[in-house]
Every structure is written in structure tokens, then in C-alpha cells.
Queue: 3 jobs
Job 1
Amino acid sequence: MFSDKDLMALHVQTLFTQDIHSRLLLINEPGGGKTAPRFFFGKTTEGNLWRFRADLPRLLIQELEALCRDEPAGEHYPSKLRYFDRYVRLLETHAPIQEVKIGPAYQFAHFCGLSRNVIAITELHAELLQGGFDELFEELPEWQPFLVLVEDSQAVSVCRSVRITPQAHEAGVETLPGYRGKGYAAEVVTGWAKLVKARGAIPMYSTTWENIASQAVARKLQLVLYGEDFQIT
């Protein structure tokens, strides 16, 4: 059984590639991703963990880490980092802030049954993505498991593994605008999670606090919040 802090460690390992010193390198997308954020902070009720991108100067890392050690563990979410403004100011001495992401991270406590036409696909079934998810064709070979919910002879909701390690997969879910609000995303995420678990890996689900629709899926599936992460690029 994983503790919340263990899950957060698994979460960051799944999101990003790291060097031998646990410094962040790249976003861990199948086939190679963009540069990782400069600063990651994961907060749980059992304690926190933090990571820095490998290209940050050593002295800057030391200053950031001294503040990280004094951050309280999570109690209520959403929360704010005690030294958030100071992290930003310190990072700005290195380069301008490009993006800040803050959001919840969930685990699957149980797996609901499926009631709709959810199927796993590969590149052999690419025609199902036509008319709405054409841009995902190139993902089919590697972003597996890749599940779709089919209505009107086409995929209207998809969930696939967008970050993959032998230990865990992170979900990426999308639904066509005309089919939202009907519970399709929850169905396809459930099917995806079951396949990931069958492969011997842990299915994980994370989002941002601004993504209300994604949080609604988490509530519908009764996912369990194990922590909150902060990413500054």
C-alpha cells in the first residue's frame, strides 16, 4: 500500500524524466517531451517533496531548497505555498516566469463498471478518431492504453496514457464539445484505469484547479485526493 507521499514521489517520476541527482529534465511524454518546469513542489498530508530542473544554478537551488524545507505539510486543499512569492522572485533572477500550474493529484480507490461502448484501440483503428480527434493519430502506437467511447460511429471521448513508466501511468482525457456533460469522460477514464491496472501499473489522475470539468470527472469516479502539486516554468 502506497502512502500519500509515496504516491506524490511516483507522480513526479511519471510526469518528468530526471537525472541521477533527481533533477528534472524533460516532460515524460511518449516519444520525447518538452523541457520540464524549473520547479516542482508536491504537497501531501504526510510531508512534501520538491524537485528542480537540472539547468538551475547550484546556489539558486540551495536558496530554493532552504525555503522548501520550511513549508508546512498539506492540510486543506487547495492551498498556497508559504513562500510562493519568494520562489517566484528567486526564479525570476534566473529567467522570466513562463507558466505556473497548480492542481490536485488523485488515486483510484475503486473501479466502477462500464455501461457504454468503450473500446481499446491501436493504429489499426485510426478511422475512429476521424472527425474530432485527427490530431491524435500519431499518438496511437505509443500512448497506450488508448481507449475511446464510440457514439455515432466515431470516438467522442478518449483517454490514453500521456505519461508512462513501468510503475505508473497518468491519464489524458478529452471529449468532443457536443458530447460533454453526459458522463462519457468518466466511462472512458474507468476503462483506461482498468487496463493500466491489468498491466501491473498504477493509474494516476491529475489536473489543475482551473479545470472544473476534469475535477467533475474525479468526483464522479470517487477518486481520492492524495496531494497537490505546484509547477513553475
Job 2
Amino acid sequence: MEGRSILSPSDTASELDGTAFRHTQSHLIGVFTTADFASAVRLLDAVAVVADELNHHPDVRLAWGHVEFALTSHDAGGVTSRDLDLARRIGAIAGDLGATAT
């Protein structure tokens, strides 16, 4: 199945270089800082629309001026190309909304 091959941190290193995301053992973790809570919610809301379109949903931690996204393909048991695609899209959305990588 396309998008189901598990990727290692060395497989994703060049793609994630310069982004908010880092590859842990089994997840991509991206943290963004926003101006306030409402901005953090707007970021999460915009990501939710894309996640629904892709049918691939991140785990999220939301706080005042802070959103953390954890991406993994549960059905594959690790990080796949679907997670990299979602990470790219989250990064673009965050940039458009003025959020910064932490």
C-alpha cells in the first residue's frame, strides 16, 4: 500500500531540516508558537480542515500561544510519507498564519 512504508529518522532528516518538526522514535513532533490562545486555536482549526481532507489526523496539545502536533501512521506503526505530507502542510499553514517554529 502506498504511503504505508515506515520511515526512519535518517530517512526523514533532510526533509525535516529547517522545519518545526523532528522525528522521534515513532512520531514527527512539531511545535509552534502563536501570539495568543485565539491564534493557536486558529492554527489548529486550519490544520483540522487539511487533516480531514487527507483523512490523516494528528495528535494535538493546545495551550496559550502554543500548539504541538504529533504525527504518526497508527495503521503502519510509525512515520510514513503521509506524515511528511501533513507536516509540510502544517508548516505552510503555520507560516501563513504567522506562527513560528519552536
Job 3
Amino acid sequence: MAQALDTLKATDPSAGPVTPAERVARRKALLNWIAVHALGVAAALFFVLPFVFLFLTSLMSDQQALTRDLWPHPFEWSNYRKVFDTPGFLTWWKNTLLYAGLGTVLTVVSSLPVAYALAKFRFRGRHLSLMLVISMMMLPPQVVVIPMYLFWAKQLDMSGTLWPLIIPMAFGDAFSIFLLRQFLLTIPNEYLDAAKVDGCGELRTLLKVVLPMARPGIAAVALFQFFYAWNDYFGPQIYASENPAAWTLSYGLESFKGAHHTDWNLTMAATVLVMAPVILVFFFAQKAFVEGVTLTGVKG
């Protein structure tokens, strides 16, 4: 690159001769460019190579998966069909979509009004309410798992289903409320005052003004909640382990691994199918996700 620039400058009649100081500066710039991008490429490979190994292993035969071969020959695409043909796998997919999809919608719908009140309303006890929300974020779920299980399983007889995990999401989530509240603080109050002058009430202001402007924050919260529900293993193990028809992919994958503990190609294929939706969702929504997470720290 430096030599090409020197040659171009030498052939330009209007350009003066290349001085030794300019050559040194260009070489330093070139070396810095190589160093920065080399670190970036190395970091990318560090994160990508495990996924590449996972995908290639999923396309190997049973015998080849136990060898040191890194490249499948031939490509066994039928491994994915065998995974889908496993009894219960499609049911796990449906249960996971229900849990992650409905749970995400309920979390966003229930958390947004609370976050709006904490960010824009002025009332006595507002700071105390915010401290209670933050304290709930610090409470480990294992602390309340026994009383919650007794309530849902013994009092309401909902063990063996996913409803004990979905219904509580309709009452808000501490982390989602806090994240949305931080984002709503970045919305100028002048927009809200203008809407109220035009005759909008609080609910209409929330729906017509705040909701369109808070889309990046809502997208970030929705992705966080979707990823959590999709990968949740602890909750389904507590409430749905006794009923295989209510298993999710995260819990069913453990059962699949136990049944195919020597078939690493099938185990890897099942893992790829479990991970693929999360990777695709994040790939298409990463711009809104990054924007929402970044803007939550603008104001305190």
C-alpha cells in the first residue's frame, strides 16, 4: 500500500518528491492499520470458530464425528431430518415459541406503562418505587422458587405446564422496567407537553407519542426477554419436567443429548437448530438492539 502511494505520487507532476519522513509516516500508518485489523480478525475468529466447528460436526457421519477430522466427507444433511424426526422435537419447538413469544409480548406491554410512570410522572414515593424495582433485580430467582412452586403447583395445580412461567410476565419485569425507564428519560418532556396541550391524555400520549419514539428501547427489552425465555432451562425444569409434552427446546435438548450421547453429529445438529433462531433474530434486529441499549445510559 505504501509503495503504491509512493509510485502514484512520483508519477504526479504536480506532486513533489516523497521525503523520508513521509515514507516513515506512511509505513507507520500501514502497520497500524494491519495491527488493528489483525486484532479484529483474530477476535472475530475467536468467537466464530466454535460455531463453525459445531456446524461442521453436525454434518458428519456417526463414525467421522468421533475422529479428528475437521471437514465432513460427505456432508450428511440427513442429520437434521433425523433430529426433526425425533419424537417430541416439534412439540418442544412449539412450546418454546409460545413461551418466548407470548412472554415477550406480555413483558413489554406490562413493563412500558410502569417505566413511563417512573420516568415522566412526579409523585410522592417515586424514588422509593424505583429503588424497589432495582432491589427486585438483585433478588436471585432461587430465593423465591420454593414459595412460587408451592403457589403454582399446590394452590393452582398448574405443575406440568408453562403457564407458571408465562403468567407472571403479565405483571412486569424489574430489569425491563428499569431499562425502559432509562430510555424514556432521553425523550424530551416538550413532546409530551405539546401532546397534552393538544388534548391528549396520559394513555394517548403514551400510545401516540412515547411509543413511536421508544421503539429502539422496546426492541432492546423485547430481545433481552426473548433470548432469556428461549434459553431458559431453570424454569421449565422446575415446572414442566414431569410432563414431556410441555418441555421446551432448552430442556428437551438435555434429554436428546442423554438419548444420543454417542451420536455427537446428531447432538450438534440439534444444538444448531436450537441456536439458529436466536442468531437470526439478533442478526436482523441488532441495529435497534444496539441503539436501544446505548441510549439507556444517556440520562440517569
